[in-house]
Design goal:
The structure is a single chain. By secondary structure, the protein is an alpha/beta fold. The protein has a single domain, classed as Rossmann fold (3-Layer(aba) Sandwich), CATH 3.40.50. The chain is about 35% helix and about 25% strand. A seven-stranded mixed β-sheet has the order 3-2-1-4-5-7-6, with helices on both faces. The longest helix is centred in the N-terminal third of the chain and has 14 residues. It starts with 5 loop residues before the first helix and ends in an 8-residue tail after the last strand.
Length: about 200
């Protein structure tokens, strides 16, 4: 038996922190794997908002969701939009209430490897995710440093994590030791304690 995969760990962390009825965000829909996990976790009263800049990705995700059945698919709203627009696209009532925000960086598997996530929009989306997260909620970021542009984005995301106030956020790194080009996970949990609380 091996260690839990990077994606498996990201899913576990999100599932553990989402309560039935929560809202959650898939910031990089891709093929819809994370979208489905979130849709199951939020339950019948919850909602998942998914972002992607490629129509092909959203079509793949719709097919994955359809295979889950209408009950699950109806919990998801997919948007053809950059994740940098998260704060303007989400309903304002969800500010500070998201159970989880998932990022799977890089490019669409079996898609155009030239269309990749890039630091400026990813960092803007991470800022929004941190602000809109509920206390005890989690951001998961699966990072792929092995493709062109991937290492630069990895370094930018790590710097962003280091900039977070440690009294408000905890950051976990999950990766195989000594394999710098392999995908890895950064997870950010928002503190359950109020500012200035003991």
């Amino acid at each position: 038996m091996g260690f839990l995969s990077v994606l498996g760990m990201a899913h576990r962390l999100a599932e553990e922190r989402i309560a039935p009825g929560d809202a959650a965000v898939d910031a990089t829909v891709g093929g819809g794997n994370d979208t489905v996990v979130l849709a199951r976790a939020v339950g019948a009263a919850g909602k998942v908002y998914g972002f992607d800049i490629q129509a092909e990705a959203l079509e793949r995700a719709r097919a994955r969701l359809a295979a889950e059945g209408e009950a699950v698919a109806s919990r998801v709203e997919l948007m053809l939009a950059d994740h940098a627009r998260m704060a303007e696209c989400l309903p304002g009532r969800l500010r500070g209430k998201l159970g989880a925000v998932m990022f799977n960086l890089g490019y669409l598997p079996h898609g155009d490897p030239g269309i990749i996530t890039r630091p400026p929009s990813t960092l803007q989306a991470l800022d929004a995710a941190a602000e809109w997260l509920k206390p005890g909620g989690v951001i998961t970021v699966v990072i792929y440093p092995g493709h062109p542009g991937g290492r630069e984005e990895a370094e930018a995301v790590e710097r962003w994590c280091l900039s977070l106030p440690p009294d408000r956020y905890q950051v976990l790194q999950y990766r195989l030791f000594g394999q710098p080009d392999r995908p890895y996970l950064l997870a950010v949990e928002k503190s359950r304690k109020p500012k200035g609380g003991a």
